[in-house]
Amino acid sequence: MRPQTLDHYLGQDHLLAPDKPLRRALDSGQLHSMIFWGPPGVGKTTLAQLIAQLCDAHFISISAVLAGVKDIRAAVEDAKQQQFFQRRTILFIDEVHRFNKSQQDAFLPYVEDGTVIFVGATTENPSFEINNALLSRARVYQLNPLSDAAIVDIVRNAASHEGLQIAQAEVERIARHADGDGRRALNLLEIAGDMLSGSAERELHGDVIDQVLSGQPRRFDKGGDLFYEQISALHKAVRGSSVDGALYWFARMLDGGCEPLYVARRLVRMASEDIGNADPRALRLCLDAWEVQERLGSPEGELAMAQAVCYLAAAPKSNAVYAAYNAVRRQITASPSYDVPMHLRNAPTGMMKDQGFGEGYRYAHDEPGAYAAGENYLPEALKDEVYYQPVDRGLEKKIAEKLRYLQELDDSAAYKRYR
């Protein structure tokens, strides 16, 4: 079912429309090394084959899952033979991110000297998986999931080729369940066709499609780009106070097979990073949901986490604690290792007391209002630093009022001291 020309290739108009750089390069025969990055079933291998056909180039295909350095060397020798006939060679490496550094380095010199034109396909972000030296010599093209309209055309063509009759509504159902993956759509159609095996009837009814589509998972790759994109969307929806958005991405991750306890851990992070002291109950609620998931599992645990997700999204937001903590860490990294001021040190022995440990320390509970106004608890060089700046929302509004009051007491004490 692979298309034989670029005009029959469906999807990726952002790369292959007549006015796009890749299409212009191909039409003019100007080949260059490239990496196709995109999810499964969007036409990476097919596009590489079409490029070789369009440019009349010798095509060598290697799977990084199965191949090693020996296979790379054999492919290079084959390419050198083609040079005698003034013919270019495309070395296509599927799942190129599976190659380790030494394997990628093995064919790098032959990409540089033009022995082969490297075309790689990967489902993983090339920035993380491909050596910089190779990445700098290849142009990265991102392929998108196929649209439902493109998959409808793919299914229609395949059904016609196999002599299968199928209503438009059922074709559209398959397209939706394919989730942007053309290969998955063809597999679903093939399974449906196999269910008619031995029958004279060639029409795929709704009940057959129901059986085929039952239990089909959504696109999700544990530990891959989709995984991090979706947890990012969940976190940002919580931060943006979108209850519906947060609940949607939470459910999508679970539907795709994400480990619930991973999500529970991230919810705890969100409670501290984006809500903090604006509503301290959020942290406790997330820990409770985590415990319910550990003790009861599904579906009770997932419902408890959904409750936490909704609470986090609706709660007042503050990143003041997060910002203060990061500011302190930056200060510590950039500063010397200041000693603890003498008045803050304990004096458990007489010798230490004689040396001035603890001298001048004011016990807060003996002070008016249990506050030692004007006391300094930072290293002397940092005594004027202010890290925590609560926002004017939720409980932090009250905290901010309290801190302003304490600052007034400090200012008054300083005024009396230096008057």
TrEMBL record:
Protein's UniProt keywords contain Cytoplasm: no
- CDD domains membership: AAA, HLD_clamp_RarA
Tell me which UniProt keywords the record has, alphabetically: ATP-binding, Nucleotide-binding
Pfam families, A to Z:
AAA (PF00004), AAA_assoc_2 (PF16193), MgsA_C (PF12002)
All copies of domain AAA+ ATPase, residue ranges: 30-146
Described function: DNA-dependent ATPase that plays important roles in cellular responses to stalled DNA replication processes.
Record's family? Answer: Belongs to the AAA ATPase family. RarA/MGS1/WRNIP1 subfamily.
Protein name, per record:
Replication-associated recombination protein A
